[in-house]
Design a protein that fits this description.
The chain has a two-stranded parallel sheet with strand order 1-2. The longest helix has 28 residues. Among the domains are: 146 residues, no CATH class; 68 residues, no CATH class. With 350 residues, the chain is mainly α. 54% of the residues lie in helices and 2% in strands.
Length: 350
């Protein structure tokens, strides 16, 4: 029956999404949607052994919506769906609802929340299932098959049915605040009994926050209000027909333009044509570096003859010095062009 899993899950999600749009947890509203969709016909077409296998598949899928992490309304719809499928199945005897022992605490907590919220329809349906012995308590939520290699496809949870994260509201409840205030008061009494009057007057020893419990409660309430405002703002942005995305793009463009303008307002860098030009050094001056004269003045380089006569010292007769100077003068002529070596060409091989 694995080939029917996607179709059954899509039908259950369609039913629960219609029930979610009603913003109700009454069984009367759910049964009306059930009859409009003719959901009881889901068991038609199965014969013989297929009846039991299909009933087990439908109940397993419906049971997943009865457990966390779905919202309270979806869990109520999952409970109603379980009850309706269990009563309308064609298998005889009726197939039971497989429920793991680790999930029983969630079921009891769901029953307690329903009683506190006075949702008597959900309490009645849950106790009716218990009275009919519809639950089959097992060690594992799914049936284990040994010595059988099988790929189990994990179903993707519907994000619309998920409960919004509200950990602060769950942790900071009325019972916890009362207990915290009692402990805080007891701690204050013990501190006053131990410390003397002079120590109590010292601010460094005073470790008690008098407004701890009210401040904690007000912080949680402020967070809840901010969460509600954020949800409303997101819904308004989603309802706009592309206006929010256009405004966001325009804001980003303005931000980029301001960043660029600030960057160009800084000191301008050297131009690309002069970026790699080397600084010409005046060798005639005693200090190395560019000249300190104002404006741009290009220093002329000494000739090759002057540099050679300054750096090269030749010892020997005057005749040799004369000949060496004549040779240097010949070499330093401007019209001297070195002979080019003949180029060697490689022979082409066919």
């Amino acid at each position: 029956m694995d080939f029917c899993q996607k179709q059954v899950r899509s039908d259950c999600e369609e039913l629960l999404s219609r029930f979610q749009r009603t913003d109700s947890v009454r069984f009367e509203v759910f049964s009306k949607i059930w009859r409009e969709m003719n959901f009881s016909h889901i068991f038609y077409g199965t014969v013989n052994r297929e009846k039991r296998a299909f009933s087990r598949l439908a109940l397993d899928i419906a049971c997943s919506y009865f457990l966390p992490p779905f919202s309270f309304q979806i869990r109520v719809g999952g409970l109603y769906l379980l009850y309706s499928l269990h009563q309308c199945q064609t298998a005889s005897p009726s197939e039971q609802i497989r429920l793991a022992l680790k999930d029983w605490d969630d079921v009891k907590k769901f029953e307690k929340d329903s009683v506190d919220s006075k949702h008597l329809d959900a309490v009645y349906i849950l106790r009716q299932l218990m009275f009919l012995k519809a639950f089959h308590f097992t060690a594992m939520p799914t049936l284990l098959a040994y010595r059988k290699k099988r790929k189990v496809e994990r179903s993707v949870l519907c994000e619309e049915f998920m409960e919004r994260a509200s950990r602060p509201q769950e942790l900071i409840n009325i019972e916890l605040l009362e207990e915290l205030s009692n402990i805080h008061e007891l701690y204050g009494k013990l501190k006053t009994s131990v410390l003397s009057v002079s120590e109590m007057e010292d601010s460094s020893v005073n470790l008690i926050r008098k407004d701890l419990v009210p401040q904690l409660r007000s912080t949680v309430v402020d967070f809840y209000k901010w969460q509600q405002r954020k949800d409303g703002a997101e819904e308004e942005e989603d309802s706009g027909e592309g206006t929010s995305s256009q405004q966001e793009c325009s804001r980003r463009a303005e931000l980029l333009a301001s960043i660029k303008s600030k960057a160009y307002e800084q000191a301008a860098e050297a131009s690309k044509s002069r970026r790699h030009r080397q600084v010409e050094v005046d060798f005639t001056s005693s200090k190395a570096g560019p000249s300190d004269t104002p404006g741009y003045s290009r220093t002329s380089k000494p000739s090759l003859k002057a540099r050679t006569s300054e750096n090269v010292h030749i010892s020997g007769d005057l005749s040799k010095e004369a000949t060496s100077t004549t040779l240097i003068s010949r070499l330093t002529r401007l019209d001297f062009v070195p002979e080019e070596k003949p180029k060697k060409y490689k022979k082409f091989k066919w």
